[in-house]
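Key result, reporting period 2: structure in, sequence out.
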């Protein structure tokens, strides 16, 4: 599908926005500002969890989930630079493959590499971004969501309508530095009292040729030059449609169709004498999913999820040195997923049980790099239970994971059966809470680990992880017209990874293979402080909020036979933190963010040659609501700091964005 065809389809659908916006009666709802949620009054909250709500996402200088997620505690984002750069998440040192990404309650999976590019997901139309360590504590969740060390959940907005209105929506335009252009349209239609349809689309075009400083050595006095990041352009388009059907007070359905397309350049690492790249990549992602819920009575409920996904990736290096004179790889992934949940709770809501089962079948077709056409069947089954007595809550579940692989012309990864227990206890009073949890999980090797030509090793063992967490928090509220909220929390965690899958040289430095070689010990601290003040000034509400997070991670190689024993694992900073501060008055919001990351190492050998220096990034945004318009001006990397998150992938310097949104 060509760029022109995609643009035509999306612009044609957006042209209906004004046609459907002719409602005669309007209701004005005053805006409110919410910040990272401490969930002080959420009885079903898992204590080691965080949320960023919709109103704060709107105020912050962020445009995709990868940019937003770095403001969550314990998160490390590997960013390869620019708007089109790959962004993957690591939580508490466990690596991106140990984080499960949920999109409206259903997992986004990638059996090939296990990594999900968070930059593909825009913050537009997102109601909430949440991170849960250990398990999510909620009713009727899928078994697959229990199978990872952490869960990053994206929840999109459900449309709401004012009295007598059946259609609303918004259209936003963004222009930014390095020729960033973004158009996003959202339209909601209330067909009747039982059916709502939502349509959202987005186009992003990015030239991405930004300047950076190229250093010719590691020393302070070494030479450097100013270069430009070339082949860093991107074009992407997204179409998403949601259906909300309330058949009755007992039965509801939410269905989603999602399509994403992008074409972008791969600028590659910045190395001396090789600053230009012509590599290109194309992605097409499509999935359709549904969630149906039925409550038989106040005690018994049923829920089912169904999903089918198709993913296509094409990679081209037109100057690759082989017999053809170029390299072209095409990867096709398909998955079918089905889930059933039955849940029961007593009338007093003090005791609950659920039984959940997930089935998935996925396969990969990549003839140039995979001669084996691998497929995988996976089954996740879990029994979950919760007990609440006054100020005490205890949660327990046990998860069984079964996987079976097939690979033509090659030995397949052996069948896996694994039992994963989870136990948490929470004591919560009016101003204090303390909790702890234990979890035992495992990560099956990806198709890249097992079957990739030359490198793959089918006899790998799964990575095994044990998690321990102690959480404590204090919270206070006082004042009426001058209202104050104070929340302070501390998490102490210990993670132990065995049979870690790593790449090591096999016959020489040019032929590598995957082996179970590593053990990783992770001890960490997270401190969170949130302060909110609301008051009335000249009959107008003023709200000030500041949220601060500090992370300490002692994440080291724990294999006594390793040459890097007790060295910090690569790309995991010992110290990091962030600050979000905002003030809202008379529909004017000023927000400031700080993201600070300490020294990291690009290899497990902790030498100065392998080190990346610490950095801090400051950003600021100013937004104003004027009747039906929202205007936001933001400046990212305010101090124009030159830094790298991934070695030889320089980040943008100071850059600006201007957004205008029209609501109808």
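The corresponding designed sequence is given below.
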């Amino acid at each position: 599908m060509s760029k022109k065809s995609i643009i035509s389809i999306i612009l044609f659908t957006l042209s209906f926005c004004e046609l459907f916006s002719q409602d005669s009666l309007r209701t004005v709802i005053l805006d409110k500002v919410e910040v990272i949620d401490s969930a002080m009054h959420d009885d079903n909250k898992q204590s080691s969890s965080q949320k960023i709500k919709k109103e704060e996402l709107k105020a912050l200088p962020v445009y995709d989930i990868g940019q937003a997620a770095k403001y969550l505690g314990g998160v490390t984002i590997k960013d390869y630079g620019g708007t089109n750069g790959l962004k993957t998440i690591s939580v508490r040192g466990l690596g991106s493959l140990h984080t499960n990404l949920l999109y409206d309650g259903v997992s986004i999976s990638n059996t090939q590499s296990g990594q999900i590019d968070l930059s593909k997901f825009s913050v537009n139309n997102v109601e909430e971004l949440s991170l849960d360590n250990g398990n999510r504590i909620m009713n009727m969740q899928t078994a697959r969501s229990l199978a990872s060390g952490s869960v990053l959940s994206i929840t999109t907005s459900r449309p709401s309508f004012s009295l007598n209105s059946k259609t609303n929506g918004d259209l936003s335009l963004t222009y930014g530095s390095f020729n960033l252009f973004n158009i996003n349209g959202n339209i909601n239609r209330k067909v009747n009292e039982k059916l709502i349809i939502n349509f959202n689309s987005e186009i992003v075009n990015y030239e991405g040729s930004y300047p950076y400083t190229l250093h010719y050595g590691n020393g302070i006095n070494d030479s450097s030059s100013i270069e430009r990041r070339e082949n860093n352009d991107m074009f992407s388009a997204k179409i998403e449609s949601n259906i909300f059907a309330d058949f009755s007070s007992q039965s509801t359905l939410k269905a989603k169709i999602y399509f994403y397309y992008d074409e972008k350049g791969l600028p590659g690492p910045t190395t001396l004498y090789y600053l230009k790249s012509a590599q290109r990549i194309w992605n097409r992602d499509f999935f359709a999913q549904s969630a149906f819920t039925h409550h038989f009575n106040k005690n018994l409920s049923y829920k089912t999820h169904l999903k089918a996904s198709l993913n296509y990736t094409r990679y081209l290096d037109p100057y690759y040195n082989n017999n053809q004179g170029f390299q072209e790889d095409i990867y096709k992934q398909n998955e079918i997923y089905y889930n059933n949940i039955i849940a029961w709770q007593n009338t007093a809501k003090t005791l609950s049980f659920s039984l959940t089962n997930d089935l998935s079948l996925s396969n990969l077709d990549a003839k140039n790099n995979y001669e084996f056409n691998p497929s995988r069947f996976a089954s996740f089954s879990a029994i979950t239970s919760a007990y609440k007595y006054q100020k005490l809550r205890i949660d327990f579940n046990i998860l069984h994971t079964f996987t079976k692989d097939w690979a033509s012309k090659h030995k397949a990864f052996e069948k896996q059966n694994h039992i994963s227990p989870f136990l948490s206890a929470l004591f919560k009073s009016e101003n204090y809470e303390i909790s702890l949890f234990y979890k035992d999980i495992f990560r099956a090797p990806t198709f890249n680990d097992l079957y990739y030509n030359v490198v793959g090793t089918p006899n790998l063992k799964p990575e095994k992880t044990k998690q321990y967490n102690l959480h404590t928090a204090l919270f206070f509220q006082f004042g009426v017209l001058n209202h104050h909220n104070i929340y302070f929390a501390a998490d102490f965690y210990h993670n132990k990874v065995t049979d870690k899958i790593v790449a090591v040289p096999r016959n020489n430095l040019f032929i590598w293979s995957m082996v179970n070689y590593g053990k990783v010990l992770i001890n960490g601290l997270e401190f969170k402080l949130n302060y909110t003040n609301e008051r009335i000034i000249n009959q107008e509400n003023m709200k000030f909020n500041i949220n601060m997070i500090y992370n300490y991670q002692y994440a080291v190689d724990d294999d006594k036979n390793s040459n890097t024993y007790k060295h910090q694992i690569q790309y995991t900073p010992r110290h990091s933190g962030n600050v979000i501060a905002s003030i809202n008055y008379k529909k004017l919001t000023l927000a400031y963010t700080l993201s600070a990351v300490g020294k990291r190492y690009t290899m497990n050998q902790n030498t100065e040659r392998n080190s990346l220096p610490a950095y801090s990034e400051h950003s600021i945004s100013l937004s104003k609501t004027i009747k039906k318009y929202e205007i936001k001006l933001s400046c990212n990397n305010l101090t124009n700091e030159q830094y790298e998150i991934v070695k030889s992938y320089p980040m943008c310097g100071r850059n600006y964005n201007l957004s205008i949104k029209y609501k109808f």
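The longest strand covers residues 482-508. The chain is about 5% helix and 60% strand. This case is discussed further under Risks and Mitigation.
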